[in-house]
């Protein structure tokens, strides 16, 4: 993004960018910026993370905005320029972004601005999303053999597993005959026709 203020003595311009939009707590945001001071004033470039909380209820909206982290650059004299090649701004412990809730929203932005004495700040605001899982933990850069910070050592599991697990013992082998007979249901025995008089059965209908 590029911004510019024009003064009678000359313009003040600012351009800024970041590598990505999503970050997590504890990560550092590298900021790339170019500041050019063609005015007669002494200016100071700064950067800050702003948190915006929005509450929605009963058709009313309340918004709170606060600065949660900031960094300051060196003074830029008249006719001079300054460049930020990845100036670091560390993210403090923050609530993750809440963007899909109908009653509350928590949003973040990175503001890169220039403090100009006696004039309004020249500010560029870049949107941020604060998450919970670092992007580098699952990036393709780890596919070359680097260990992910979220990888789990499962080598202990192989030590506890047998190569050929044995079959469980038979129930009758681990209980007494009395318990076995008590738990095994008695099924009706088939009728032996040799011991009883077997004759055909007829239905009589009157």
TrEMBL record:
GO terms for biological process: extracellular vesicle biogenesis; positive regulation of interferon-beta production; protein K63-linked ubiquitination; protein transport. GO terms for cellular component: early endosome; extracellular vesicle; plasma membrane. GO terms for molecular function: ubiquitin-like ligase-substrate adaptor activity. It is a peripheral membrane protein. SMART domains: Arrestin_C. It is found in: Cell membrane; Early endosome. Transmembrane segments: none annotated. Residues 8-135 form the Arrestin C-terminal-like domain. Pfam families: Arrestin_C. The keyword Iron-sulfur does not apply. Keywords: Cell membrane, Endosome, Membrane, Repeat. InterPro entries: Arrestin-like_C, Arrestin_C-like, Arrestin_domain-protein, Ig_E-set. Belongs to the arrestin family. This is Arrestin domain containing 4.
């Amino acid at each position: 993004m590029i911004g510019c203020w024009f003064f009678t003595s000359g313009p003040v311009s600012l351009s800024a960018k970041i590598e990505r939009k999503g970050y997590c707590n504890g990560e550092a945001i590298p900021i790339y910026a170019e500041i050019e001071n063609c005015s007669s004033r002494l200016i100071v470039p700064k950067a800050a993370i702003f948190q915006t909380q929005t509450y929605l209820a009963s058709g009313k909206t309340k918004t709170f905005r606060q600065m949660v982290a900031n960094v300051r650059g060196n003074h830029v004299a008249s006719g001079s320029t300054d460049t930020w090649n990845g100036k670091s701004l560390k993210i403090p412990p923050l609530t993750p972004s809440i963007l899909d809730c109908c009653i509350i929203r928590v949003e973040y932005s990175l503001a890169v601005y220039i403090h100009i004495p006696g004039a309004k700040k020249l500010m560029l605001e870049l949107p941020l999303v604060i998450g919970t899982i670092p992007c580098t933990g699952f990036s393709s850069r780890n596919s070359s053999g680097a260990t992910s910070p979220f990888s789990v050592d499962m080598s202990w599991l192989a030590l506890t597993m047998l190569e050929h697990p044995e079959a469980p013992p038979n129930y009758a082998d681990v209980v007494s005959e009395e318990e076995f007979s008590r738990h095994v249901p008695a099924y009706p025995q088939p009728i032996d026709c040799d011991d009883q008089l077997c004759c055909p059965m007829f239905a009589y209908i009157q």
